[in-house]
Amino acid sequence: MADDLRLDGKVALITGAAGEIGTATMQLFAARGARIVAVDRNETQLQRAVATLPAEARALAVTADVTREDDVAAYVRRAVEAAGTIDVFFNNAGIEGEVAPIQDYTLENFRRVLDVNVVGVFLGIKHVLPIMLKANSGSIVNTASIAGLMGSPHIAVYSASKHAVIGLTKSVAMECSTTRVRVNCVCPGLIQSRMLSAIFEGRNPNARADSEKVLNRIPAHRLGLPAEVAQTVAFLASDAASYVSGSAYTVDGGRTAG
Ligand SMILES: NC(=O)c1ccc[n+]([C@@H]2O[C@H](COP(=O)([O-])OP(=O)(O)OC[C@H]3O[C@@H](n4cnc5c(N)ncnc54)[C@H](O)[C@@H]3O)[C@@H](O)[C@H]2O)c1
User: Fold this and answer.
1) Within a domain: residue 213?
2) pLDDT tens-digit profile of 48-89?
3) CATH number reported for the structural domain that contains residue 125 in this entry
4) Pocket of ligand 1, candidates 21, 28, 158, 201: which has the most ligand atoms within 8 Å of its Cβ, to mutate?
5) In this structure, is residue 179 part of a structural domain?
6) pTM higher than 0.90, yes or no?
7) Which of 75, 158, 243, 249 is catalytic?
8) Greatest CA separation found in the chain?
9) 158 labelled catalytic
10) Which domain range does residue 100 map to?
């Protein structure tokens, strides 16, 4: 493998690390040599995910709620205390929220999705960026979605939140343009996962994410895998992406190409 794809000596902080995309990505980061700080609000699942990492990852698990500024400040502080710095930040925790026509949403659900998917991403950037700017080096990868590039029925607030993540990504990348800190996001498409099944079943209890009708709208004619999202994130995290900032990378089998 090209040396600049390796993450040896880098400290990688991952939120939503207990989830499917977060776990696949931290496993790939670790395989490429990174030291891992794993954050999630689900302590049991987080411990289980971290237990899959090799000893060389010297993984630290921190239970935190990304919507609480005290928790965010604490996970950043613990990462720096344990590992000295943060080189890579995968700002990934997110929720799908209720799946319903917008007129049926509760205000509570609407705010909850924005709180996790937008405020959580904002707080992560706010607290990690000063460390990267001080080092004049770093890569932030936020998790958006193809729902941030197009409308998505019955998950309107999720779609709005992911549009916001893309806007945050591009704006912060511009603010960092005179530094060696890069800021990008990934836009996964239909990834075989609990979240995707929840969205399809929420729209129609009999619908399946991998039905012929759904697959026919994806040029690759299949769902993606969390490990395939991880490959793009690991590239963006690495020095191989040294000229990449402000991008929203789709990992969607061509779903948004047409
Ligand atoms: N699965 C897909 O098809 C898909 C597609 C596009 C984008 N995404 C995005 O990818 C990211 C990861 O999704 P996933 O499929 O791994 O979902 P997942 O539900 O498996 O993982 C999400 C993780 O985030 C954690 N989390 C949620 N709220 C939190 C909070 N307030 N504080 C801390 N942790 C919190 C959960 O405990 C969970 O472990 C999300 O941002 C999601 O919106 C997923």
Assistant:
1) no
2) 999 999 999 999 999 999 999 999 999 999 999 999 999 999
3) 3.40.50.720
4) 21
5) yes
6) yes
7) 158
8) 52
9) yes
10) 7-191+226-251
